[in-house]
Structures are given as structure tokens and as C-alpha cells.
């Protein structure tokens, strides 16, 4: 009986595994699950976009997007032309890492996969 339960669990895992794979062979984490950006210190982060002082969207070298929520506001993030990363000695960027904006160190609270930054809404011109 025990072997049958283990075999069923293994079969279920084998069926679910291909669904989690992204095109190109990279595994994708389910939405909302904490992830890391590998090789961030070696050019793994391609670009960033921030519209708030406590959320930033990061794009890796494979053009995958990530949403990083900060523990608090990171003043100047919305207007920054560049940011630094502090991975604390690791080559991966994750929720234990920090952003450097100017002279401020901004701690990451959560890092999850994203479809990218929300689209900008154009407001009609008055006049």
C-alpha cells in the first residue's frame, strides 16, 4: 500500500513538472512564489522600472520580469537612472538582497515573477 502511494505521488509530480517549465527550458515558479535572479552580480539584471518608491520591476538577461517589494519607501527610486544591487556575497538576487539608490540602501521584502510593469495610463490633455 505504501509503495502504491509513493508511486502515485511520483506520477503526479511527473505530470505536473512539464507544466511548470517555460519555453527555452527554464523552470517557472508559480505566481506569488518567492524566486531569485541567478547571476545578478554578473550582469543578470538587464533593466528596471519603478513607478512607486516601494516597488520596482526588474528584468533579467532572458527578458523575464520580477516584482520586488521593498520593506519601506526608497526615496528617489522613481527618478533613478541607475541602481546598484547588494547580494551579500551571493551571485543571486533574492528577497535577502538590497537595492542601492544614491546613498540609500533599500531592503527587498519580496521578489516574485511578474508579467512586467503595469502599462502607463495616458491622461487626456486639458486646454
What's the pLDDT, averaged over the residues? 79
Radius of gyration: 19 Å
Please tally the β strands and state the result: 6
Structural class: alpha+beta
Q: What is the terminal separation in angstroms?
A: 77 Å
> The biggest beta sheet, please?
6 strands, antiparallel
Total helical segments = 1
Helix-strand pattern: HEEEEEE
User: Beta-strand percentage?
Assistant: 25-35%
**Poorly predicted residue ranges:** 1-26
Fraction of helical residues? 10-25%
Task: Identify the strand order in the major beta sheet.
Answer: 1-2-3-6-5-4
Shape type: globular
3D structure, described in words:
- The protein has 127 residues and is an alpha+beta fold.
- The chain has a domain of 85 residues.
- 15% of the residues lie in helices and 28% in strands.
- A six-stranded antiparallel beta sheet has the order 1-2-3-6-5-4, with no helix packed on it.
- The protein is globular.
- The N terminus is likely disordered.
Short précis:
With about 130 residues, the protein is of the alpha+beta class.
List keywords for this structure.
about 130 residues; alpha+beta; 6 strands; six-stranded antiparallel beta sheet; disordered N terminus
List the topology elements.
Elements: H1 2-20, E1 45-49, E2 55-60, E3 65-70, E4 84-86, E5 98-101, E6 104-114
Antiparallel strand pairs: 1-2, 2-3, 3-6, 4-5, 5-6
Amino acid at each position: 500500500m505504501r509503495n502504491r502511494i509513493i508511486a502515485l505521488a511520483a506520477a503526479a509530480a511527473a505530470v505536473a513538472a512539464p507544466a511548470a517549465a517555460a519555453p527555452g527550458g527554464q523552470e517557472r515558479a508559480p505566481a506569488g512564489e518567492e524566486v531569485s535572479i541567478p547571476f545578478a552580480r554578473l550582469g543578470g539584471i538587464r533593466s528596471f522600472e519603478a513607478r512607486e518608491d516601494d516597488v520596482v520591476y526588474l528584468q533579467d538577461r532572458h527578458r523575464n520580469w520580477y516584482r520586488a517589494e521593498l520593506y519601506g519607501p526608497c526615496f528617489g527610486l522613481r527618478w533613478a537612472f541607475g541602481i546598484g544591487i547588494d547580494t551579500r556575497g551571493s551571485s543571486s538576487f533574492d528577497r535577502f538582497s538590497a537595492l542601492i539608490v544614491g546613498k540609500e540602501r533599500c531592503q527587498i521584502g519580496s521578489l516574485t515573477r511578474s508579467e512586467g510593469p503595469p502599462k502607463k495610463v495616458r491622461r487626456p490633455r486639458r486646454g
